[in-house]
Amino acid sequence: MIRAVALLWSLGPLLWQLYTSLRPADALVSGPQGLGSPGGGIFGGWTLQNYSQLLAADPPFWRYLLNSAVVGVAGTALTLLLAIPCAYGLQQQRGALRWGTLALLLAASLFPTALLFLALLEWARQLGLGNHLLALALPYAALSLPLAILLLRAALADLPPELEDAARLEGLGPLQRLRFVLLPLLAPAIASTAILVFLFSWSEYPIALTWISRESLLTLSAAIARIGASSVFTIPYGAFAAATVLGSLPLVLLLLLFQRAIVSGLTQGAVKG
Amino acid sequence: MTAWLLMLPALTLLAVVFLAPLARYAWLSAHATSVLTALEPVANGGANWLRLAQDGRFWQDAGQTLRFAAVSVGLELLLGLALALLLRGPRGGRAAGGGLRTAVLLPWALPATVMALGWRWIYNEPHGPLNSLLIAAGLPPYPFLSTPASTWFAVVVADVWRSTPFVALLLLAGLQAIPPELEEALVLEGADRWQILRRLLLPLLSPWIGLAALFRLAQALGVFDLIQVLTGGGPAGSTESLALYAYLNAMRFLDFGYGATVLLATFLLLLLPGLLWLMWQRRAGSAA
Amino acid sequence: MSLGLLLGVALPHSLAAGAVPSPLTVRVLMPASFADATAEPVKRFNVAHRDLQVEVVRGPLDGDTLSDLAVSGLLLGDTPYDLLLIDQTWTARYAAAGWLAPLEPLLGEDALDGMVAGARLATRFDGHLWRFPLQGDTGLLYWRTDLMDRPPRDTAELESISRRLQRHGRVRWGYLWQGRQYEGLSCVVSEALQAFGAHWWEPGRGVVGGRPSLEGPEAVAAVRWLQHLILSGISPPAVVGFAENEALQLFAAGEAAFLRNWPYAYALLQEGGGPVAGHVGVTTLVGAPGQRGAGTLGSWGLALLRSSPHPREAASVLRWLGGEEVQRHLAQRYGYAPTWTSLYEDESLQRDLPLLAVQRRALEGAVVRPVTPLYAQLSDVLQRQVNGLLSGGGSPAAAITTSQGQSELVLRAAAGTTG
Can you give the pLDDT at residue A158? Predict the structure, then answer.
């Protein structure tokens, strides 16, 4: 019973968007939520028009999903490239240095990123980084680094030290040890971290909002906000709902595929971090 | 030595993106950097801070943001605990399956702006689903998003919906770290669920609760995405958050200096949950 | 050789066939309402001109949202428009930011000479012409022709007529206006200040454009009058939450003798079929006895972006869009007040538009909100103080003094000390 409530609470709002997105505009504004719509109540008046509107728009909706994917992949790659060596190096440190750095990283990870938009906007202006999708990977990587480093260091700490000792005895240098011995063992943690970082990139809004102004380059978050502010649609709710559904689809898929990795990443990181 | 080299690129980027802005804000807040100065800093003798002190809109937004954060996080902790217990399942029983966990995680995984647009429809008066329910029940429709008294709470609900899974996951991790023998011992003594909760789970969970509260409070004080898309700060600025005010100052009023001042003031406000957390830790530590 | 001959014949032919150069497109960003209103003339223009096309980009309905959209690109130095339709209160801000190109080199110093005096307000700043007004709406006073013989001549008469009607139970309320904390309240306060001989802003030279002048007994009297309207029951206490719509609806239901609103309300009242249809008169806003009343100018105008790759063509499109043809269409179909004197003297328009004469009088004497890059912040200060006064009580003098003090602080914080 309680599980049903939890399910309803979690999925209800999104399911309602799905329902709304499939109704034509006049059905939405007539009677209680289209349950008494013209054309025969709940079984009348279904349409895919809202979706076709979005996909036929200029630029088409899938463009925004593509932009977010590009930024997400680039940001995740850059994050891992920087975080893995950093976590490894951090794990080598001892004492106050390690705990101090960890504390600072923790503080950075809970910093609300919206507060950084102004300084980052200044850089975008001065360095001409505006309206370049790949340029977004830089701030995104920086904002994901604290969490990534914390998670990866925790995973490294979990590994039995004998493995590295054995490798060191065999004459492998630190980079080689990292690459050949530790990385393969870290793979699950890296996967979890990568997904979490990717999720963050998809969700990020203030920086995407200020760094990108050209419509064809907007990421999903910024595009949805702009759609919500525009008046292209007369009764916009069907289109808004369709945008919400389309915008959620990739993440729902991601979640379905990687739920276990996400949960373990967060909980393990929390336990060890 | 190699350790430092390995850490250097990441730490450099971090310093550039986290520390440099704060320093820059401090600099900007001490200068006039606005459309009047062609967005170049010109000394203004601390006038930004003087203005902040008297700025009714800033203090109103600060109060609103604090209220939003406190109520949101409070509700998230309560619901998150309930959800974590649900996900863990009855002791000795089966933990919640992947399906339930996926569903529970969904609100948190969706981008904030995407569902904010969705909530605008849900709250819509008179056609949205909530009002349709009211009408179906014979009640008059209620303008959730047009009445200052209710809009802030509507925003809280949207935020709680989104962030509770995160809190639940953290608390779940904490619950899973509790050795089951302790619980079993209490069960053998005849304690019921509430007593187990009060005497065992809550005290052992307190560092986790503290951590979740810290995270969520910090994030909530910087709330931007949800507010901007769901209400735009309205009606009549009653849901405007500090981050949104800073954004408006920079992007709409073209006053970067004052925007930086508001951001810096918000950051100082952030230290508050940090202090609270430290106090909580110390108290928890001394009690243990 | 025959190949050369072939090519020699073929080439000029293909050049001739493909000789139509791709048309130059001038892109204009407008709020949705104006984009819809100008759609027809624009379509005709595009059909008539093969080499020059106008593309109207339909922006958000809300003014501020439109500005945010434009600014996001302008701040990054990457904007896809040539022309913007801007609200008059943005003129100084956009100009000071260096985003606009001055119009007088392209259109001549006398570009606006054929316009009614009030329409030329908020078009120049810091020595240049930046905005070409498309319409010239002003605040107007609506009155009930079935309840009185003629409209009031000053605020004292407005009050006495209201009281009389209320006492006899003819109407519940006397005067409805916009008192919510938003830009509309700034317009109302601006009109009240004018009505009592006070001024919000003292224009001056330089990039700030002047200084706030909310001081003196006249300014206090203006704000005190607004408070008095509520305290004496002439205006409902709910007016502190009214925007244009709420005030209009209450007036349309027959509940009040007077309404302050924009010209668009007239058609809605007359055609709404409610109790007041056919009994609505419109006149200019009143001042205190001995003072001249005036309505606030609410005007959108076209501006040329400095970044436009073809300023000459864009300027010619700007001149056409703001010209008589389009303005006639806007006036006739949508009731927007034109800015050209010739249109006000046009007989067919005078026949079709009952409000035209009043709109001209109102436009000639319109009061303009401060023309300064800091207008948005100053408006916020004044709205906050006055709405606070009206809904929470307090002293009008304190509200004025605080407004002035905070306005000066805003200036100092944004302008810096010059030594």
Answer: 81
Query: The domain spanning residue B84 has which CATH number?
Result: 1.10.3720.10
Contact at 8 Å (CB) between A214 and A131? yes
ipTM > 0.90 (yes/no): no
**Helices (runs of H) and strands (runs of E) counted in chain B:** 14, 2
| Number of domains chain B is built from | 1
Kindly list the residues from chain A whose CB atom is less than 8 angstroms away from the CB atom of residue B246. Answer: 115, 118
Among A203-212, B210-219, C168-177, whose mean pLDDT is lowest? B210-219
Query: Could you give the CA distance from residue A244 to residue A18 in angstroms, rounded to a whole number?
Result: 8
Using one digit for the tens of pLDDT, what is the confidence trace for B236-285? 789 999 999 999 999 999 999 999 999 999 999 888 878 887 887 777 66
What is the secondary structure of C126-179 as a DSSP string? TTEE--EES--EE-EEEEETTT-SS--SBHHHHHHHHHHHHHTTS-SEEEE---
pLDDT tens sequence across B81-106 = 998 888 887 654 556 677 788 888 88
Cβ <8 Å between A112 and B6: no
Residue range(s) defining the domain that contains residue B272: 62-287
DSSP string, A178-192: IIIIIHHHHHHHHHH
Q: How many CB atoms lie within 10 A of CB C416?
A: 22
All structural domains of chain C, each given as residue ranges with its CATH number in brackets, are 23-136+298-364 (3.40.190.10), 140-296+374-418 (3.40.190.10)
Confirm whether B47 is domain-assigned: no
Task: Please report residues of C whose CB lies closer than 8 A to that of B50.
Answer: 409, 412-413
* Binding partners of B (≥3 Cβ pairs within 8 A): A, C
Number of domains present in the structure of chain A: 1
Q: Rounded distance, CA A118 to CA B224, Å?
A: 13
- The domain of A84 spans 57-218+248-272
| pLDDT for res C13 | 47
Kindly tell me if the per-residue pLDDT of C323 is higher than 70.
yes
Token pair 């209490």 is found at: B186
